Every structure is written in structure tokens, then in C-alpha cells.
Amino acid sequence: MAKVPLVPIGRPLEQILDATTRNANQKASAERAGTLTERRETVHSGWGEKYAERVRQKGKWTARERLAKLIDAGTTPFEVGTFVHWGKTFGELTSPAAGVITAFARVEGRWTIVIANDNTVASGSWWPLTPEKIERAQEMALRLRLPVVYLVDCSGLYLPEQSRSFPGATGAGHIFKKNALLAAAGVPQIAGVFGDCIAGGGYMPIISDRVYMTEQAYMVIAGAALIKGAKSQKLSSLDIGGPEVHVAQSGCADVRVPDDETAIAQIRREVSRLSTPAVDFYRYGAEAAPPSFEPRELAALLPPDHRHAYDVDQVLARLVDHSLFWELWPERGREMVVGVGRVNGLYMGFVINRQGLIDDPERRGGLKPSGILYREGIAKVSAFSRACNDDGIPLVWLQDISGFDIGVEAERLGLLGYGSSLIYTNSTNTTPMFTVLLRKASGAGYYAMAGRPYDPVVQLSTPLTRLSVMEGRTLAIAAFNTKLDDNFEIASKDPAERQKIEAGMRSTEERIEEDMDPYRAAAQMDTDEIVAVGELRAWLEVLAECAWQSAGYRRTKNPRIWSLHDFAALSEPR
């Protein structure tokens, strides 16, 4: 029982796909990855070099320069929320990444969440969705018990848009509640205050365990411009709430430092004092190892056309250490694959939708499409999800799903009830769950597979992702159903009416296709980040280490006493 029966999976790419198919998939993936890179660079430039130079002329670093100095040498931050507000304008202005950088970042060998106001975008102001993006990062830190580092340089709300960022359940004030919840959970918070911190920007660092202020920084409820008499008394915001006030007098900050460089060095020093990460302990003697097959081959393996199938075992083989995997109940609910593998030496549970046609025992040798949830598959996933939660194994959901089975037989078999059981399970799990939308993420299947409404710690999309209730053509048919015959052809014989219906269906289909664009989802925070398929393994390595870094905050069983062993034993043939 103590031994997790990992077995080799996967084959070389040349044995799976012919050269023509490999090259076609690779080309399509490369084009989309190129677009992703270009758009990232656009976001990372903020409002451009002109504004970055203005920051430097004040003797300060830009937010991205601070982040680069904060992280360990040779490491890369893994940003979330890069494309919030992508394609959105506010009058003539844009708000790249909603004016704030949120990222998983390794500091002194420990994973942290960094939240940094982009001081090249309206002096780090909060735009619509900026508070929600900050709160989302704080929630990730709370769920994983990761230290939070705030790099604060914020002039408060961008006032022309304050009505969309001040009120509401996720308005700016909710940031401070998250500060408090993190403190109550014992999650370390460290703040560096580097410049303007007005109103909410001044409140954000206060609950932190350590607050550093540079000589350029001030924290004020209201700046000099709003205080009557400040002009006649020749007071500046620095005089009202600078480090002389808050370090030497009010005690709202802890340490006064001369500049950005010193502040970053001191923040790194504070992080180094935190407890040693538990990652090595939870490897149970294993070593971190790459897959036996190159993860970048996923770009050639995954067809860009969502109607084309692929072998999900080959996907898993390019994500788990040594391409070793323990699949549970392989003969039941075959539209789903569930099992356990290691990522960087750490156990992770995986759920993935099988693609193509599978046997249908209920039809006596017939076939049925996978990528759909049927009764047995739902039951299998529910049991696996519950067991992983009970055993403390983090879960990765790899979605490529069209939805639930439908029809008379599906209703007779009680799919609504089985689906409700799965939704209940995923809604109440406390083990960390991470969701990846590989391609299709459709209908209630998206919900059942731990989609964003069911609070995975992080949800990633790829450039191939299509997130919607249903495909554009299918939705157009549903919308114009009363105008169609039983074969879904236009019923009218009147040429003018037919032309009008055709135009309406085409317009509906085109609009839905646009809505399914992953950048649209990322812009409105319906997904956390877009990553190239070749980057998925690197992301899983980060998420695995983040899930196992902190000890004692959630149930974690050693592999000898996993419930999964009991399930496997009971399902063995006599």
C-alpha cells in the first residue's frame, strides 16, 4: 500500500503523429504563441519609456525594475492578470494590466505573491478591476499561505473612473479586508512604500507585519492638495505623511531607508527570516525530475481545431516527472482520466478529458464521443476529487470539455444528480485546486471541472482556449430555433426572410466566436492568465511548489495512508 504504483506513459512524438500533422499543429501554435509574446511585451511597457524615464528622474525605480531586483537571481516571476483590461480604453487612455503587477515570485528560495503598483501608469492609480485583481492575488496567497510582498507606489483611485472601483463587493475597500484576513491567518505581509500612497494606497501597507518607507515616500489619508491651509503653510504631502512622520512619530511604518535599492534589500532580508519551505520534506525522498518527453512538444501534439482529437496520455507524459503516472479506474468512465503523478518531485492529482471516440458498453459495442461527461465519468471524478481532498493531494484539472451528456437516457440515468454531487465536492474541497483550460471549456462541463466560478486557486488558459456556454454555430441554431426545421435548416421559403435569418445567424455566430477569445476572458478576469502550451509544465512546477511550501495549514496525509489505495484495492478484480 505504501508504494504509489507510478508506471511509464507516453511515446515519442514521431510515433504518435505524422510529420505533416506535427508541423501544422506546431505552426499554428507558434503563431498564437508569437501573438501572446507581443501582447505581453505591450502590457509590460506600461505607458511607455517616456513615463518610465519620468520615474527614474525622481530617483526611483519602475515597478518592474523593483520586481526584477526583488526576485532571486536567475529566476522569473510568473505573472497573473497580465491581460486585465486588454483592449479596453478609458476615454483616450489605456490601463495596461489594470495598473498593477501581481506575480508568483521566488525570493530567498521561497515562493511569494508580489503586488506592485505600476508607477508608469497614472502614478500607480487604481482603475476599474484593479482592486479585484489585487484581491485575487491576495486570495491566492491566503489559499496557499504564501508570504505577500507589497511594492506600494499608488496615488489612490483613478478618480474619473472611481464609480467602478470604489463601491461594490470587490471594490477598493475589500483590499483592506483581505489584508486583515491574511493577518488573521498568520500569512506574513511585508510592504515597501516607495512614493505616493494616498487614501486607499496609504491604507494598503498598514496591516503588513513590516513596513519600509523610502525618503521619497509618503502615506496620507488626504494629500496636501486637499488639506485646507496646506498651501499657505507651504506643506507638502511628504511633510504631512512622510517617513519622518510615520516612522519617527506615528509608528505606522517600521523602518526608514534612503532609496529603492535599500528597501528591496531589506525586504529580501525579511523574507529570508521566514520558515524554511517544506517542499523537500513533502517530496518523500524523491528528487525533482523533468518529464521523459519534452514539454514543448505539447505545441505539436495539441490540434488547434477543437474538433480534432489527441491522446491525453501523451499530454500527461509531457507534464509529470519521468512521465510516470498512476491511473485509477481506467476501465470505468473512460471519457475521463484520473490519477496521480509527481511534478518537481511533489505529488499532484490530475483530471483530464479524454478525446475522440470511446466504447459505449450501454450500446453493446457502439461508440460515443468523449470530451463529454457521462454518468460513470462523473462518478469517477467525484470519488477521485473527494479522495484527493481527504488525502491532501493538490488537484490539477486539465479541461477540454464540450459539456454534459444530454437526452432522454441521460436524464433517466440521473446526470443532474451526479453532476450536483461533483459540483458539491469541488465547492467544498479545501485542498489546492488548479485549473487549465487546454482548448474547449463549454457549458456546465466547465463548471463541473472546477472552472473559475468554483474557486480554483489559479485558472490558466492557453491561446487555444474557447470559453463559452456553447460553440458559435450551435448557439446560433439555438437562438434561431423557431425559424428552423427538424434538420436545422431555415424553414421559410421567402427569400427576403431567409436572407434576414441567415444574416442574423451569421452575426450571432461571429459575435460568440469573438466572445470565446481567451484574451476577452482574461481582460474581464474570467481567467487568471494566458500561457503558451509549451509553458504549462513550468507553471505546474511553480503551482506544485506553492501548494506544498507551507506546512500545517491543511490536511496532508503521507502516501501510506491515502484513501486512494483503498479505492484502488476495492476496484481490483477478484
What does this structure look like?
This protein has three domains: 45-272, 2-enoyl-CoA Hydratase, Chain A, domain 1 (Alpha-Beta Complex), CATH 3.90.226; 306-469 and 524-568, Alpha-Beta Complex (2-enoyl-CoA Hydratase, Chain A, domain 1), CATH 3.90.226.10; 472-515, no CATH class. The protein is 37% helix and 19% strand. It is built from 21 helices and 23 strands. Helix 5 packs parallel to helix 6 (173-184) and helix 13 packs parallel to helix 15 (415-428). It is globular. 50% of the residues are buried. The model has no long low-confidence stretch (mean pLDDT 90).
Characterize the largest beta sheet: strand count, sense, and whether it forms a barrel.
9 strands, mixed
Architecture of the largest domain, according to CATH? Alpha-Beta Complex
CATH class of the largest domain: Alpha Beta
The CATH superfamily of the largest domain turns out to be 2-enoyl-CoA Hydratase, Chain A, domain 1
Distance between the termini: 17 Å
Summed over residues and divided by their number, the pLDDT gives a mean of 90
Number of self-contained structural domains: 3
Q: Can you tell me the residue ranges where pLDDT is under 50 for at least 5 consecutive residues?
A: none
| Strand content bin | 15-25%
Shape: globular
Tell me the helix content.
Answer: 25-40%
